[in-house]
């Protein structure tokens, strides 16, 4: 049964997830712009950017159903920290690897957040939120799997480019 306590919990979680997805965009967009030698990574990031935009739309819909909206302050703060993290990796000689590690970790953070939100939806009797949250979770799990499956190839390509004296630029 829905009550004010559970409503507040899920609304807070949805606002946090919204800010988290804005942060994800602020991390991925600069990364994809800098990629030169890893077209498969660029294509997958572009796809996930589109997915993330859809996730934000789903979260907006859910927040609207609860009579709430996203937290502009949280969105702005996390977007800023995401941009700073992405920019910090640009100075590294192994930027593509650092980005791969950070993206893998962030995807798992998002997976945990959506799993928690699904529990809150269940506890609060908010079954109407389940489909959207499951869709977001599925996309995050797919991206995490892709990163895991492709880390060896990215690392191998990076090492080969470095060994041949070519730029290993992302």
Automatic annotation (TrEMBL):
Leader peptide range in chain numbering: none
Entry-linked InterPro entries: DUF892_YciF-like (IPR010287), Ferritin-like (IPR012347), Ferritin-like_SF (IPR009078), YciF (IPR047114)
Record Gene3D superfamilies: 1.20.1260.10
Domain of life where this protein originates: Bacteria
Pfam families xref list: DUF892
Protein name: Ferritin-like metal-binding protein YciE
UniProt source species: Allorhizobium taibaishanense
